[in-house]
Amino acid sequence: EEEEEEEEEAGGGVQITPQLLKATSGEFSLESILLLRLRGRGISRLGCLSLCSSLEWLDLSRNAIAQLGPLAALTALTVLNLAQNRVADLRPLASCRNLQSLNVAGNRLRSLRQLRCLSGLRRLETLRLRDPLARLGNPLCARPAYRGAVATLLPTLRAIDGERVSGRGSELFQLCRDLDSSLGRGAAAAAGTEAPRVAQPWVEAAFWQPPPPRRGSVLDEAYRQFGEALRECHQLSRRADDTIAQAERALGSRPDPGSFVF
């Protein structure tokens, strides 16, 4: 039934054509396109997208795409954004062996079985199934502890839904989460038993004010010497101006050689 609904929905909307790809990318040859941004174009059919054999970065978010068949030919693809579409079948992506980052938040993925086709993608490190900021998700995200199950299914992942699950920083991230949970449980247990105390500043009010400037004997001597040097410079400048003026007057009083007649 879902496949029939997807076929009916794909009947309308925009289809990707060579003209659309060339106008968007500025490339004359489809094989030369490396990056495509087709966000929010009302696209429902991927058409000739499979001809972009060199494509590495593709944004198809905020469209009406249900069928991903043409993506199977994009073996060079490394980043794919399919957020906010109608995707329920990821099997064509199993051929995208270089895929590293995949965003499918806001689609129709209902179970972990629909993610098993990604287990052969050894370079896949980032997967997003849910985006709380954009209020996007998938039905399978309602399952308790679904991230742990996804991490077990796809062990190469380092981040799920923007949260580190392995690699550098994952231990600190988990520690912060555990600490937040402990503080939350402690606050809940103490609720109603003791009135919260008013927060007090850690330091005195004048702690952050800069100290008044202090001038020692060394600094005073430096100021004095600088003032003397500045006065000497002014005197030298006046002397130079007088000398130049005298020279100009002396040169102006000499007769013009061109005035003599031979």
UniProtKB/TrEMBL annotation:
Keyword match Nucleotidyltransferase:
no
InterPro entries the UniProt entry points to: Leu-rich_rpt (IPR001611), LRR_dom_sf (IPR032675)
PROSITE patterns membership: LRR
Q: Which residues form a coiled coil?
A: none
SUPFAM superfamilies in the record, alphabetically? L domain-like
Q: Which GO terms describe its biological process?
A: outer dynein arm assembly
UniProt-listed PANTHER family: LEUCINE RICH REPEAT PROTEIN, LEUCINE-RICH REPEAT-CONTAINING PROTEIN 61
Q: What is this protein called?
A: LRC61 protein
The organism's lineage is: Eukaryota, Metazoa, Chordata, Craniata, Vertebrata
Which gene name does the record give?
A: Lrrc61
